[in-house]
Amino acid sequence: MIRTSKLAGSIQPSATLAAGAKARQLRAAGKAVYDFSLGEPDFDTPKHICEAAAKAALDGHTHYTPAGGTAEVKAAIARWYKKRYGYEFGAENVIVSNGAKHSIHNALAATVGPGDEVVIPTPYWVSYSDLVGMTGATPVLVHTTAAGGFKMTPAQLRAALSPRTRMLMLNSPNNPTGSVYTRAELEALVDALQDTDAAILSDEIYEQLTFGDAKPTCTALLRPWLRDRTITISGASKSYAMTGWRMGWAVGPAAVVKAMDTIQSQETSCPSSVSQAGLIAALDGPQECVAEMRTEFAARRELTVSRLKAMPGLSLPVPDGAFYAFFDVSGFFGKTFGDKTVTDSVTFCAALLEQAHVNLVPGAAFGAEGFARMSFACGRPTIEAGLARLAEWLPTGK
Ligand SMILES: Cc1ncc(COP(=O)(O)O)c(C=O)c1O
Questions:
Q1: pLDDT tens digit sequence for 9-40
Q2: Number of folded domains in the chain?
Q3: Ligand 1 atom with the shortest distance to the CA of 16
Q4: Does residue 234 line the site of ligand 1, with CB under 6 A?
Q5: Which residues contact 200 (CB under 8 A, 6 or more apart)?
């Protein structure tokens, strides 16, 4: 028998992917499932991106590329940041990976290890604490509240710092809460780090998906000293509906990017050549497709928020970005639904899936017990029908 490693035993499977698998099982058994568990746009990748990738394949761009991506894709990313934020950097400051998750993993592997602490505000994206744990570093969780808009304050950050703090992980717009820090809020946070050795990993993957007056901020540009202390993460999955292409990137100090490049060269050799051609078309091509998807997400947000707010017992801060609603379900704890007594977010979501076939992700997966996350990245008819089911099911709890 082959024994599995300590590392394999120390990490949890991704809760969102596991929730999606459970819904697929029910569907295979012939049940209609309203699946709100996956953070994946239902749109197909825009045609001009697919055509560019197909052309690249037919033109013979089917070989290994440099480990951190081609010069062309790096230049396209640099053009995109210059146009969007006025952020200028060279090829030595950018690396393309197999999705933003991979970029985050490599950024952490390149900068932290055993004995180091990484500050993560909760609720956090499911993978953060496991990705930190895989490096041997220790995640230090800072709990934020719905009343505070799920935002960490500078005082909370200062209280979490220790001589071992090596990094702060930020994610705005946020998965799972949809909260978006204002520029002033971010300035106050980063200033709390100025006299420390801590770096910032700023995951900005939802930067093109903000609603109403909310605006994304490129953290690295907030203060002149931050450019050398910040690793910016983003990718094509969410804004360009390119989840399956696995295109993410990191922008940061040259020495960190070089270390990430070395790690990546041993892990995966390089990101997919054909996907890199698609990414260039996404970043350089027409951006109307992004605006159209954002408009549809905004309509889905309105629908989701208005329906959830009308349900007695649920409370919900309005998400300013990304495509998630994160709502308080703790009022249902202690109630019995059918033959199931709900005691926490995990048992709440399990009973809901089993009895009403509505699939949410428990808040516990995001370090926030008492809540559930609904993705509204699916079509409006699914949102309407699934939320009608939820509205019928909730009052069955006695
Ligand atoms: C906050 C956040 N960061 C990173 C990712 C990873 O995206 P990908 O690996 O598809 O680029 C996700 C995906 O759900 C996310 O929500």
A1: 888 776 667 777 778 888 888 888 999 998 99
A2: 2
A3: 14
A4: no
A5: 167, 168, 169, 170, 190, 193, 219, 220, 226, 229, 230, 231
